[in-house]
């Protein structure tokens, strides 16, 4: 009999639920549910099966009621599913979580970690906990092992010299202020896939990966292990993102709090919600790279500058990570921007002057395809890749460890 895994990934007012058939290391999509507008009268569920999409408008009070609607749909339309495990995308595990874990009940140790580290990921961990508790209370999903796959776990073996900031030791010890990193499932997938494509052992798997979407981060992978990353204690640090500033002088927080007659909490909110592409590009509240890229191609100089600001930040991190690696085997672009925006990728590569990238314009023009888009003219064998990520495959395979 086929085995199926339920994968949960959601926020405070939404939840995505994917059903995957798993056979060995092969994962196949069965159906995807996207529940939006929880707690509002305009809630709906998008259902995607194969190439077909359907929208069901229905108010859902919370995550628990959303999961109840999904189990009803599964029972009616997919009665043959053999659900053996559930995988939860969780964001912040603090220093406690270093691997995928079996969730030990709605008020157990893992739920306690989600609560404890909510201050480090206030937009994500509370929603993760709500979804975990809703799944465990569900008559279908609660009967199978539920696994927690944390964004931070890929980076858990980062060396201390990369993990720690230059802050008082008491901050590290008493308040867990250190670099954790995020997008762990994406980096897990890309690291394994790059090794497969290049027939590399873990020891030789030395790459730098740029996960570029609305949220953006990069990771240095040395010997198949996360060795450094651009996001830090929270997802605010690092690259220029859709609405997040990325790196900024900490002194700006006090300066702008004084200038705007507000507190640092409000300044951090602005850096999270009103900065990045959204803050830099002054037209129509746009935060999506593809709109800004198109405007740049049509001659909009402001848009061109925004693209270059974001691309230069990526190029800087590529260069800094590559410069601290033995025998780098490649760089990888992934995520919505990384996989689809050839114009942006070329900007990044052209900023990396030392590497003299020879760009294959045909390959670089493709979207969401595995391909080599450039080769370095100064480091023999170093290539730039595009590899589409598949985080849900990671969630499904990790959850199957407990089935």
Automatic annotation (TrEMBL):
GO biological process: acetate metabolic process; acetyl-CoA biosynthetic process
Binding site for substrate: 89
Binding site for Mg(2+): 9, 391
Cofactors (names): Mg(2+); Mn(2+)
One Pfam family in the UniProt entry: Acetate_kinase
GO terms for MF: acetate kinase activity; ATP binding; magnesium ion binding
Catalytically driven reaction(s): acetate + ATP = acetyl phosphate + ADP
Cofactor: how bound: Mg(2+). Can also accept Mn(2+).
List of catalytic residues: 151
Site (Transition state stabilizer) location in chain: 183, 244
Pathway given in the UniProt record: Metabolic intermediate biosynthesis; acetyl-CoA biosynthesis; acetyl-CoA from acetate: step 1/2
Positions contributing to ATP binding: 16, 211-215, 336-340
Cytoplasm among keywords: yes
EC number of the protein: 2.7.2.1
Function text: Catalyzes the formation of acetyl phosphate from acetate and ATP. Can also catalyze the reverse reaction.
Subunit structure: Homodimer.
Family under the similarity heading: Belongs to the acetokinase family.
Name of the protein in its database record: Acetate kinase
Organism of provenance: Candidatus Thalassospirochaeta sargassi
């Amino acid at each position: 009999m086929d085995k199926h895994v339920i994968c949960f990934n959601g926020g405070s007012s939404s939840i995505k639920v994917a059903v995957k058939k798993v056979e060995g290391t092969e994962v196949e999509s069965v159906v995807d549910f996207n529940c939006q507008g929880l707690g509002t009268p305009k809630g709906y569920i998008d259902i995607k099966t194969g190439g077909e999409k359907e929208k069901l408008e229905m108010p859902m009070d919370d995550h628990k009621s959303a999961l109840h609607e999904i189990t009803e749909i599964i029972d009616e339309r997919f009665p043959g599913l053999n659900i053996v495990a559930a995988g939860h995308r969780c964001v912040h595990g603090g220093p406690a979580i270093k691997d995928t874990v079996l969730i030990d009940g709605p008020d157990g140790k893992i739920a306690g970690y989600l609560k404890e580290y909510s201050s480090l990921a206030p937009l994500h961990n509370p929603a993760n906990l709500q979804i975990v508790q809703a799944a465990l209370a569900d008559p279908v999903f609660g009967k199978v092992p539920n696994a927690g796959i944390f964004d931070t776990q890929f980076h858990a073996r980062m060396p201390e010299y990369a993990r720690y900031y230059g802050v008082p030791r008491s901050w590290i010890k008493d308040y867990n202020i250190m670099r954790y990193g995020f997008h762990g499932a994406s980096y897990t997938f890309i690291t394994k896939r790059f090794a497969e494509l290049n027939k590399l052992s873990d020891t030789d798997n030395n790459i730098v990966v740029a996960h570029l979407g609305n949220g953006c981060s990069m990771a240095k992978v040395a010997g198949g292990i996360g060795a450094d990353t651009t996001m830090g204690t929270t997802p605010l640090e690092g690259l220029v993102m859709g609405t997040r500033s990325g790196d900024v002088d900490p002194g700006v927080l006090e300066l702008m709090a004084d200038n705007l007659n507000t507190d640092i909490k409000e300044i951090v909110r602005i850096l999270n919600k009103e900065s990045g592409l959204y803050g830099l590009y002054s037209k129509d509240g746009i935060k999506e790279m593809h709109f800004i890229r198109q405007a740049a191609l049509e001659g909009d100089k402001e848009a061109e500058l925004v693209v270059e600001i974001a691309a230069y930040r990526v190029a800087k991190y590529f260069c800094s990570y590559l410069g601290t690696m033995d025998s780098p085997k490649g760089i990888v672009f992934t995520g919505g921007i990384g996989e689809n925006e050839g114009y942006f990728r070329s900007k990044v590569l052209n900023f990396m002057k030392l590497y003299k990238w020879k760009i294959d314009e045909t390959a670089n023009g493709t979207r969401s395809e595995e391909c080599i888009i450039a080769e370095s003219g100064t480091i023999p064998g170093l290539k730039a890749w595009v590899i589409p990520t598949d985080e849900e495959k990671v969630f499904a395979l990790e959850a199957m460890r407990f089935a």
